[in-house]
Design brief:
Layout: E1 4-10, E2 15-18, E3 26-39, E4 46-58, H1 59-68, E5 74-87, E6 93-106
Parallel strand pairs: 4-6
Antiparallel strand pairs: 1-3, 1-5, 2-3, 3-4, 5-6
Amino acid sequence: MNSVILIGNLTRDPELRYSTGGNQTAICRFTVAVNERRRNPQTQEWEDSPSFIPVVVFGKQAENCDRFLSKGRKVAVNGRIQTGSYVNKEGNKVYTTEVIANNIEFLSPRNEGGQGGGFGGYDGGFGQQSGGYGQNQQASQGGYGQGGQFQDEQGGSDPGIPEGFQKIQDDDIPF
């Protein structure tokens, strides 16, 4: 089984390109920094040991990543590891390892830098294509569906929080 789940922050803005040929496919590349906590055997102190994982996303999800993600944003990536190789300009063989993403979850609240997001990747999780927690308010507000009347990027409005749900503040969320 080849399956990987990563949670980390983007180290730089995503790069979007399109494949050539008759069927152009969006291809988005970015790098996710993930930390592993290790105890230093000499000092017995806990230290973070970062790893920088290259991620590749295809199709509509790639376009959404380019649109909503930016350097520093927190994401969860579900996908598979793919290895490959190529010969560089100097004639040396270079080996590559990257994660081919099946699903991207946008974990940073909308007000946490960048240009949009909130919980909700294209292919599932909280919100799916239409957004999700953090996207149902003005960009200046954070939170998880704080409802109320607002204007979204397309000029539409939301009637508020659905019946049976209540407003909560970011500080009330335990994570």
